[in-house]
Design goal:
Elements lengths: L1 H41 L1 H10 L2 E6 L6 E2 L5 E13 L7 H12 L3 H9 L8 E7 L1 H9 L7 E10 L7 H4 L2 E3 L2 H4 L12 E3 L2 H5 L1 H5 L3 E7 L5 E8 L6 E4 L3 H11 L4 E6 L6 E7 L4 H4 L5 H8 L22 H10 L9 E3 L2 E4 L2 E4 L7 E3 L1 H7 L2 H11 L1 H10 L21 H8 L5 H7 L10 H12 L3 E3 L4 E5 L6 E3 L4 E4 L6 H15 L13 E7 L21 E8 L6 E7 L5 H19 L25
Parallel strand pairs: 2-10
Antiparallel strand pairs: 1-8, 2-3, 3-4, 3-5, 6-7, 8-9, 10-18, 11-12, 11-23, 13-16, 14-15, 17-20, 18-19, 21-22, 22-23
């Protein structure tokens, strides 16, 4: 009996152990199953992507920027194929070695290469190291391919400006997006290496012209070199822009300035269309659209001629006597004078212990407003300004659009200065002095304007008091659909002047050209009205020297504003020549040539003659294709 009990006890113990073993095995199987579910189901996509990335790479496909044309369809900015050097950091084991190899092989700036490869950012996207590789450089890379893991050369479109320096300040240039720009919301969808507009129209309309990048997945070998393309998401090109400028007129404006510093602006006063906008000295946007070394950039920025300054919209100058156009309207509207009010000019205006000289030493005698404009009599406007006061003067200046942006479609427009008591207190922490009103009345002292503002002002006078916002882009073409969207002219303001005032001023401005200070602007082709201005830049003291004896940088600025034809104006022009002397002799002839060119370019199409040939008008510039 005892033996049987012992066997039963051992059997029971054995059964318990088997049960425990089975439970343990089941638990192990369950844990393995749970782990497999976790790895294959829950974490499956992660590991699948990780496995894919071991053999594939994502490569950004840069879009082609939209094309830019002038008003007649002449191409101003296009794209050309070029080689671009990229590095996939996932395949680079020794960055320092690669930096040394690329620097030695291509003669690149070591600091720039290091900046590209060491900068923060995603390692999954290749880093752009250099664009616009020459064929020789691309061949060198390919011939050393086995020694350069992760290095690849892609063919991309690069910005090109066929006209070189022509319209450079308007068009601007492009460049790689900077780390600082990538921090801004408007560049949030971009990546290192993206190309964006950095100046001019390229910058202002960057979102339209930029396009949308694509992406492709490529299969790579152990060294990261492309074997085949797996998936492609195509890039979308940017929209095309059709500008308002006529490049033929633009070239004439730039040639007229030549080597002189200055600006010429031509507008259509009926719409605000910018017909030409020249600024000198200029720059070649093809050069600036390449990546420059810090030394090269410093040479451009520190250039004494300030070539990156668009003098048309960013240059601020005392307007001199062209300011008298606004002063004449203000004097009449404020009832400071009537058209028949005469003021005697004996060559100077005494105020306190100071004598304010007229430009004509002997004076102009008794003059009314019309004669004062035609002869540009300073004493007349000294007197008017003193009677009017600085606050009234400032109010009318703002009414004409001075001291504020014109609204042109360019970045960083400057607004100039319209001085007043409040302005001086804020800017200088000093009270306004009565003598400063006298200087301001002829566009000197603190008064500052841009050539664009003065073109808009004279355009407003020509257009009977209606101001249009200067327009640079007349149409945008959607590259995806081919649809052309016309951009309407935008009226900005209408002067609140008595109806008889502007016709009187326009008639006087016509007299400035036919019998006054701007006779060198008189044309046999078209009637021109305008106003000269000579803006003093430096007080030379009592001992006046001949202009040729004054160093160039101390000479006066030469102004001329004009419109034509007088009876039905279609063009308004402002010419500013830095340190070029007198407006009547230096700037008026330039405006005349520009206006005559415009008229010739817009003559009606020649009529056909019986033999089927075309009769050509002398010097006609072709049919108006606006």
């Amino acid at each position: 009996m005892a033996t049987a009990g012992l066997h039963d006890s051992e059997l029971g113990e054995l059964q318990r152990r088997l049960i425990i073993l089975r439970v343990g095995l089941l638990l192990v199987v369950a844990l393995l199953a749970l782990r497999l579910w976790h790895l294959q189901i829950r974490e499956g996509p992660y590991y699948r992507d990780l496995s894919e990335n071991n053999r594939t790479r994502s490569v950004i496909m840069e879009p082609a920027r939209g094309l830019i044309y002038d008003r007649n369809g002449v191409l101003l900015a296009n794209n050309v194929p070029s080689f671009t050097l990229y590095v996939s950091l996932e395949d680079v084991k020794n960055r320092e070695l690669l930096i040394e190899q690329l620097t030695n092989l291509l003669g690149l700036d070591e600091a720039l290469v290091r900046k590209k490869l060491m900068a923060r950012g995603s390692k999954q996207l290749p880093r752009k190291v250099k664009d616009r590789l020459s064929l020789r450089e691309a061949t060198l890379i390919e011939s050393h391919r086995l020694d350069l893991p992760g290095v690849m050369v892609q063919v991309e479109s690069q910005r090109n400006y066929p006209g070189g320096v022509t319209a450079s300040h308007l068009l601007g240039y492009v460049g790689e997006v900077s780390p600082e720009q990538l921090e801004k919301p408007e560049f949030a969808d971009l990546h290192q290496g993206s190309i964006v507009g950095q100046y001019g129209v390229e910058k202002f309309f960057d979102r339209l012209v930029r396009g949308q990048a694509g992406q492709k997945s490529i299969e790579v070998d152990a060294l990261g070199h492309e074997k085949r393309t797996v998936v492609v998401e195509q890039a979308h090109a940017g929209d095309n822009l059709y500008l308002t400028i006529d490049v033929r007129l633009q070239k004439v404006a730039e040639n007229l300035l030549g080597e002189e510093s200055g600006a010429i602006v031509a507008l259509d006063p009926r719409t605000g269309d910018v017909l030409a906008m020249a600024s000198r000295p200029g720059f070649d946007p093809n050069v600036l659209s390449r990546e420059l070394t810090p030394k090269q950039w410093a040479e451009i920025v520190q250039n004494e001629g300030r070539p990156l300054n668009n003098r048309a919209s960013q240059g601020q100058y005392p307007p001199g006597s062209v300011f008298k156009v606004m002063m004449a309207a203000a004097a009449l509207e404020s009832n400071t004078v009537t058209p028949s009010t005469t003021i005697h000019c004996n060559g100077g205006y005494q105020f306190g212990r100071r004598l304010y000289h007229d430009w004509k030493a002997g004076g102009h005698g008794s003059v009314d407003l019309r004669r004062a404009l035609i002869q540009s009599c300073d004493v007349y406007f000294y007197t008017v300004g003193q009677r009017m006061g600085i606050e009234t003067m400032a109010s009318f200046a703002h009414m004409f659009g001075l001291g504020e942006e014109t609204g042109i479609e360019l970045p960083s427009e400057r607004i100039g200065i319209v001085p007043s008591s409040a302005w001086k207190q804020k800017a200088k922490n000093e009270p306004w002095l009565p003598g400063e009103t006298i200087s301001a009345s002829i566009g000197q002292g603190y008064v500052n304007v841009t050539p664009l503002q003065m073109a808009s002002l004279i355009g407003t006078v020509a257009n009977d008091g209606v101001t249009f916002r200067p327009r640079l882009v007349r149409a945008v073409m959607d590259r995806a659909t081919g649809a052309l969207e016309e951009r309407p002219a935008v009226p900005k303001r209408t002067l609140k002047l008595r109806p008889e005032i502007l016709p009187l001023i326009k008639e006087a401005l016509a007299g400035v050209v036919t019998e006054g200070t701007a006779t060198r602007a008189k044309s046999a082709l078209v009637t021109i009205a305008g106003k000269t201005g000579t803006a003093q830049t430096t007080a030379l003291g009592k001992d006046k020297k001949a202009e040729k004896d004054i160093p160039k940088k101390f000479r006066d600025h030469a102004w001329f504003v004009a419109f034509a034809p007088v009876d039905a104006p279609t063009i308004a022009v402002a010419v500013l020549g830095e340190h070029m002397g007198h407006g009547g002799s230096a700037s008026a002839p330039l405006a005349k040539v520009l206006i005559e060119t415009y008229v010739k370019l817009n003559l009606p199409a020649p009529a056909a003659v019986p033999d089927g040939t075309v009769a050509r008008e002398a010097d006609a510039g072709g049919q108006d294709t606006r």
